[in-house]
């Protein structure tokens, strides 16, 4: 099973590019972030024609996540209920979708779009940390199921200095704050495996290049799109590929697809 994550930065604005990649790469499952549309505006029919089952948790203009699978999706969840317990309020951001991908060995997949958190020192950064805490609590419950589990998406966290071409340039950014990195590390310490670190682990496995200042041309990238695998999924991990070439296509997202392969 090949499971992709991709922040598409508006699925409708970049639909030809997105569909071209799906036709070429043929992932079995894909989690999309920043679809930037409500459920009814998601181009469902285009993906169904490619053989995908589609589940969407959309939001007008901002955020939004979707999951696509070549086999049926079951036990679909939209949103993190744990955030209500932390804040007393319902989270109105469409940032989380989860489902069980059917197959000979079912795999539970969660697609996330973690808050950016900038600027540091504001409510936006506090919200990022609350959301990470809610994810932590929910991930604990999922691990208790003792099943293959993949939590993938745009984490908006640069885990280590080697995950940025110019780490010194990110010192004041929410993506590289000690609190953000610490929360990511605490999530991993529940028992998750960072798929990239397991398969490759070298510095420079970037997944995002800003549109400005020639970041792509100069390879001023960062690694912020991650797959975290439960022990039952990590035991089946056979490969990971970062599709860097997509960043050079016409009208690209600033992120590229990242695909893990599990032997099932």
List the helices and strands and how they pair.
Elements: E1 2-7, H1 15-25, E2 29-33, H2 44-49, E3 53-57, E4 65-69, E5 73-78, H3 82-87, E6 96-101, E7 107-113, H4 123-143, E8 149-154, H5 178-188, E9 193-194, H6 195-199, E10 208-209, E11 221-222, E12 225-229, H7 231-234, E13 237-242, E14 258-262
CATH architecture: 4-Layer Sandwich
Main sheet record: 6 strands, mixed
Shape: globular
Topology as H/E string?
Answer: EHEHEEEHEEHEHEHEEEHEE
- In the CATH hierarchy, what is the class? Alpha Beta
User: How much of the polypeptide forms β-strand, as a percent range?
Assistant: 25-35%
Class derived from helix and strand content? alpha+beta
Radius of gyration: 17 Å
**Low-pLDDT sequence parts:** none
CATH topology-level name:
Deoxyribonuclease I, Chain A
Q: In total, how many domains does the architecture comprise?
A: 1
Strand order of the largest sheet: 3-4-2-1-14-13
SS element count, helices: 7
Q: Would you count the extended β strands for me?
A: 14
| First-last Cα distance | 7 Å
| CATH homologous superfamily designation | Endonuclease/exonuclease/phosphatase
Mean pLDDT: 97
How helical, in percent, are the residues? 10-25%
């Amino acid at each position: 099973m090949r499971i992709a994550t991709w922040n598409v930065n508006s699925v409708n604005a970049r639909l030809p590019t997105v569909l071209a990649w799906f036709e070429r790469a043929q992932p079995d499952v894909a989690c999309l972030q920043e679809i930037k549309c409500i459920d009814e505006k998601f181009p469902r029919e285009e993906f169904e024609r490619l053989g995908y089952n589609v589940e969407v948790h959309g939001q007008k203009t901002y955020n939004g996540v979707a999951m696509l699978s070549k086999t049926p999706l079951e036990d679909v969840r939209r949103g993190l209920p744990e955030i209500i317990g932390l804040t007393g309020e319902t989270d109105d951001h469409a940032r989380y979708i989860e489902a069980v991908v059917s197959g000979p060995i079912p795999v539970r997949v969660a697609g996330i779009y973690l808050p950016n958190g900038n600027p540091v020192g504001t409510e936006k950064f506090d919200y990022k940390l609350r959301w990470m805490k809610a994810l932590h609590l929910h991930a604990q419950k999922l691990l208790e199921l003792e099943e293959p589990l993949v939590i993938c998406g745009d984490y908006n966290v640069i885990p280590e200095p080697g995950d940025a071409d110019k780490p010194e340039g990110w010192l004041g950014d929410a993506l590289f704050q000690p609190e953000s990195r610490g929360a990511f590390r605490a999530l991993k310490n529940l028992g998750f495996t960072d798929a990239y670190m397991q398969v490759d682990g070298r510095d420079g496995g970037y997944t995002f290049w800003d549109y400005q200042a020639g970041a792509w041309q100069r390879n001023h990238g960062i690694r912020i799109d991650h797959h975290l695998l439960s022990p039952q999924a990590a035991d089946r991990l056979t490969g990971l590929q970062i599709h860097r070439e997509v960043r050079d296509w016409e009208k690209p997202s600033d992120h590229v697809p990242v695909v893990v392969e599990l032997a099932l």
